[in-house]
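Listing S7. Sequence submitted for prediction.
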Amino acid sequence: MSNQASSLFEQFWSHYPARNGRPKVGKTKALELFRLLDESEQAEAVQAAKTYAKASRPRPDGGFVPEPRDPERFLRQDWYRDWLELPAQQCQFRSVTTCENLAMKDGDVCEFHYAYREKLARLRQA
């Protein structure tokens, strides 16, 4: 394993959250799985561990926070891909001028144009 991959794994391990304050376990298995990832996937896993750690912190409002999964399954089952922060997309509503709003999560249009499409659909049914 290259020095960069070793460094990336140590970053991954340091950012990965512990379960209920207990010591982290499974470092050897996680390292084996980390070695199987491409270099770009290793960098993604590090970024995902950072995001996952933020989401695993107790909430100030006392809301439910699920216990972190073990790092072995996080890598083996590609759960890290769920925690990648992807850049926000622009609204893709086809109009004369380009919409400057960001698209809603899991959608291609902003909230305004989504409501507009809903309104058009209701008018067409009437």
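Caption to Listing S7: primary sequence and predicted structure tokens for the chain studied. Residues 9 and 58 are 25 Å apart (CA to CA). DSSP finds five helices and no strands in the chain.
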